[in-house]
Design brief:
By secondary structure, this protein is of the alpha+beta class. It has a single domain, classed as Nucleoside Triphosphate Pyrophosphohydrolase, CATH 3.90.79.10. The chain contains 3 helices and 7 strands. Strands 1, 2, 3, 4, 5, 6 and 7 form a 7-stranded mixed β-sheet that branches. A hairpin with a 4-residue loop joins strand 5 and strand 6.
C-alpha cells in the first residue's frame, strides 16, 4: 500500500494599517526570514481560530478577521512538503505589551509594499509577496465561504 499524501494546512494574517502590513521576522531553518503572522492548523480548531491564535502568539496583536484573501498551494522542495495556506485579511488591535511572543519570533515589523519588496531575499516563501499582492488587488472572499466547516 502506498503512503497517503497529506498537505500541511497553514493559516496567515494579512493585516494592513495606514499603508503598512504586519510581518514577523522569525528563525526558520536556521536563518532569519520574513512572513505574515502564520502557522499550522491545530487539531479541533477552525481556520479562523487558528489564524487569530497564530497572530496573537506571533505578534501580540488581537486579530479580527474580515475576509478570506485566498487559498494557496506551495511546495517547499528541500523538505518535499506541500503547504495549503488559507490567508485572511483583518484588522488588529494591540500589541499587548505583557504578552510574550513565540520563541522563534525575533521581531515584528510594519512594512510598506516597497519595503517588503526590498527585503525579498528574506521572504520565507513566495506566498509572502503573493498574499500582499492579492490583498492590494482587492481580492476578498466573505468569511461565510468557510461556514461549511464541521467538527
Amino acid at each position: 500500500m502506498s503512503e497517503v499524501w497529506r498537505p500541511s494546512v497553514t493559516v496567515a494574517a494579512v493585516v494592513e494599517r495606514d499603508g503598512k502590513f504586519l510581518f514577523v521576522e522569525e528563525i526558520a531553518d536556521g536563518k532569519r526570514v520574513l512572513n505574515q503572522p502564520a502557522g499550522h492548523l491545530d487539531p479541533g480548531e477552525s481556520l479562523l481560530e487558528a489564524c487569530v491564535r497564530e497572530t496573537l502568539e506571533e505578534t501580540a496583536h488581537a486579530l479580527e478577521p474580515s475576509a478570506l484573501v485566498g487559498i494557496y498551494r506551495w511546495r517547499h522542495e528541500p523538505s518535499d512538503t506541500t503547504f495549503l495556506r488559507f490567508a485572511f485579511a483583518g484588522s488588529a488591535s494591540g500589541p499587548d505589551p505583557a504578552r510574550r511572543l513565540d520563541k522563534e519570533i525575533v521581531a515584528t515589523h510594519w512594512l510598506t509594499p516597497e519595503e517588503l519588496s526590498a527585503r525579498r531575499a528574506m521572504h520565507r516563501s513566495p506566498l509572502v509577496t503573493r498574499c500582499v499582492a492579492d490583498y492590494l488587488a482587492g481580492v476578498r472572499f466573505p468569511l461565510d465561504v468557510l461556514s461549511r466547516e464541521f467538527a
